[in-house]
Amino acid sequence: MQVRDYLKIEKATNLSRSEVGRLGSAVIFVVIVMIYTGNKFAHIEQSYLLVAAAVIGAYMAINIGANDVANNVGPAVGSFAISLTGAIVIAAIFEAAGAIIAGGEVVGTVKKGIIDPATINDPNVFVWVMMGALMGAAIWLNAATWLGAPVSTTHSIVGGVMGAGIAAAGWDIVNWDSMGKIALSWVVSPVTGGIIAAAFLFALKRMVFFKPDPVTAAERVVPVMIGIMAWAFTTYLCLKGFGKIVKIGFPTALMVGFVVAAITWVIVTPMIRRAAPNLSADRDGVNRLFTLPLIFSAALLSFAHGANDVANAVGPLAGVVDVLTEGDGGAKVAIPIWVMVIGALGISVGLALFGPKLIRTVGTEITELDRARAFCIALSAAITVIVASQLGMPISSTHVALGAVFGVGFLREFLEQRMSRVVEKVLATHEGEPDFEKTEEVLRTFQNAPPEDKRRLLDELKKMGPEAVISAAQRKELRKALKRQLVKRTALLKIVSAWIITVPVSALLAAMFYFALRGIMLP
User: Which of these, 134, 160, 127, 157, lies nearest to 49 by C-alpha position?
Assistant: First the structure.
């Protein structure tokens, strides 16, 4: 056996051991949940159902951590503002804190009013519906994570509840108006997130990166941008993070956000002024100014995500606990602290064990991100969720964040192609004999240059005079060379396809699990 063959086998073996280790750790967490729930509710007649629901809830929480949290930290990792390990640690801590501290005393077990629980009169059927919904959503999230497709966990559980509800009581149980709003959000969420992120990035380019001295321009602009981020995140946390602890109205949240933004601007402005002389006078120098804001945004997004999305894992579980212990099962159910802890720890475990794959997808595999672009993405996510929450639209933070990533990438493509057309016009204005090789070399340098260098290269092209003239056929060839796709179309197709099928696939799986449970439980 040759050495390289041995190394390939050793690498494959190490990969297998790593996968087994992650799976084993996840199984250990689920077993701990099983043992705890079994001991706590040993006196309940149908304790086995409660244990099974707790296990499924823990499995769902692990898959939420593996898939959904990537949207909060992926851009920061992709822009190298923070390491992958650091992002996982920050996200795990703040996801758990958000779930336990601000996860809410009351949550709707029937998410977003998708089905009418009054239609299900039998408590046992209600339990089977909730368990089927959790299992269907969890299996789909697991498959999506394996495929490397970030999807909405909220839409997954919505599809699960809908499918299991239809299986239990027919099509009339579904609130189709709510489903129509959710379907509309599949388009509105990513488009809105993309437009807002692209608008902020374009403003940064015009006011900072396209200036002769970008660092000096950044001294004026970046504190304002960071102040806007402080306003957005404070308002976001008031409404979506702490809103379940202390009721805060929208005008009050806006005012609190404005005060925090003003304080942030006052603090940040002299800090950036002191840091500016030590920065390189280029794009990299400006990007360093966004490092700390990106770390804070990753932490705050994780906190808000834990506060809101933990219900996707443990909301149905809370309904099962209520039915089996109190015999109620209404639309609103208080979540016991031990159930919240299962959801919080499950999300953190899933993130630590299986999150890196999706973090890399969001951060590096869609489009190239630097810290300024990642900053615009985080800011867009917070603002879009604020606006949507006030309009009453059931949007997905996953769709918003990924739409922002795509928006940034497509803006870059647009600006690249517009600059390429400028180059063609420059070439077309000259006369004389062509020197195609020299022109091609200059244009390829232009293609890969950062934005602040493009104007300098254009000036050089103008100075080339007759040497810069090329034929129409050669211009066509150069146009193809300059037209770069800065957003990976394969990633776009995969993610959008996964979004479209999330609700129907989760619904189908949930219906199958409901019928399986019903067949097992009925005499």
Answer: 127
Burial (CB count within 10 angstroms: exposed 0-12, middle 13-18, buried 19+), residue 473: exposed
Q: How distant is the alpha carbon of residue 428 from its chain centre?
A: 45
90 and 178 both lie in a single domain: yes
Indicate yes or no: pTM above 0.90: no
Residue 3 lies in a domain: no
Number of domains in the chain: 2
25-78 pLDDT, tens digit per residue, is 889 999 999 999 888 888 877 788 888 889 998 999 899 888 888 888 888 888
pLDDT digits (tens, 9 = 90+) for 262-278: 999 999 999 999 988 88
**Is there a single domain that holds both residue 422 and residue 319?**
no
Does 259 lie in the same domain as 191? Answer: yes
Q: Which residue has the tokens 């770069």?
A: 484
3 state SS for 216-231: HHHHHHHHHHHHHHHH
| Contact of 87 with 137, CB cutoff 8 Å | no
Residues 174 and 125 reside in one and the same domain: yes
DSSP 8-class letter at 156: H
Q: What is the 3-state secondary structure (H, E, C) of 353-408?
A: HHHHHHHHHHHHHCCCCCHHHHHHHHHHHHHHHHHHHHHCCCCCHHHHHHHHHHHH
Residues 334 and 424 in one domain: no
Number of H helices, E strands in the chain: 18, 2
Residue 6 domain flag: no
Residues 70 and 91 in one domain: yes
Domain that holds residue 273: 41-412+487-521
